[in-house]
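Retro notes, item 3 of 5
We never archived the inputs for the zinc ion complex last cycle. Fixing that now. Sequence and ligand:
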Amino acid sequence: MDKAEIQSYLYDKINDYSKRENQNKHLFQYIMYVYPYIYQGKTHWFLTHLIEILAYIDEYVKDYSKITIDKIETIGKNNPEQIFQILGEVLALYNLMNMPGADKSTIELEPKSYKGAKNPEFRMKLNDEWFAIEVKTPDLTPFKEIRHNGIQITSRLKQSEIEILKEKREIVFSKDLKIQYYLENANEKFVAYKQNAMYKDDKTILIIVWDDFINECVSTLVNPHSGLLTKESFYIESNFQNVDAVMVFRHSHHLQHLFYFGELLSYRLGDGPSRNVFDLSEYSITAGVYCKNPFSSKNILYDFLDIAYPISEEEISVNFVAEYQPTDIIDWTIALGISGLSYCSEELRYKIINLFKENREFKLKNSKITADLSVISLKRIIEDASDEEEALKHVKQIIKLSERGGMLNIPRIESDWNLINTINANVKKRFNKFKGQRLDSSCMCNSGQKYYDCCYKKLRYFKFTKYYTP
Ligand SMILES: [Zn+2]
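Structure as it came back at the time:
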């Protein structure tokens, strides 16, 4: 289908608000029907981007748009994670097919080894080798609400260390069990998939579409004292041998932000980004990461550097900016994380944990959307210091600076809640103003029809609602 056909197919599938039973039904409804009305015929940027990408994929993969829109149609508004999952699959496919060496003519959707077998999302040839790809996109929205509450533990600490922190601090754990589940699930799918002789030599990649806080995934995968893809894995029961590599994109917040409060949030960049939100090459400063599974026998030589940094237990570079460090803990009251606890002696480790046990006043209005933090690399500090005493002194100094806000080069952004409230208020005002238009006047959506025959009907049961409750 071309863009116009995709657009009209989508409009056929997603209902407007003309019937009561369709009220508040689908995440796309606001964007498709309310937005063009209150913005006088403008197409929402998200729709423009999605349709553009679907049309592009359609040129190479038969019926892709139709299959994808059919899936989107069936998902009710109470299941946002499933919508994000589909959008994550679109994003992964589009970006892989645009890597150098990708053979776009080889893409197979949902390749199954036998009827009823579990299957990965798609299969394609990259650099003359076959790859099977599984994609996972969590909805991290509920987690966003608690992530910054105090001390976030992003690796596996000893119980005694947790007890020290817990005494006075609010503790938030990371989502490492979710990532573990993704690996287990992908591993199972790839095992079933390889039952087919044709697929058995394929290389396999799990792609996780995370939000901006990519350090959570980096730590879960390769933190030297607990990472799932290290010898010290916190889940030694499996080394996920059938997953040859994991890629993580830090991109889902762009999509989730849009739908964050259901119908009423546009985008923090006013009228939406000029860059296509699905195209990772447009966001190179926030590249993803790529991690080979050291327990898989397959060697993936393909150069993923285009859209992802390679990471591994050995390769973690202290030069990486904060978000790419495998943090151990983050004190969000001062937006300061530490990495490299495993390089410390027991004694130093204990002393460092103790530096974080006292409650601190919140210094920052943290953005819930983007990962704004600094990280102390203990490995580097220990290497540079003459002894542990000096290292500890150094750490104390950095904490002090952070307490004063001196380390932080973060623009004081308006808090997300204020922003959302402002946008909501504007939308409501616009909507109510336009609602007062005369029934026989030409419709504000620029369709050329009379209001009475157009949006008056289409939006009859639109109700100004928030989807997520703060
Ligand atoms: Zn209209």
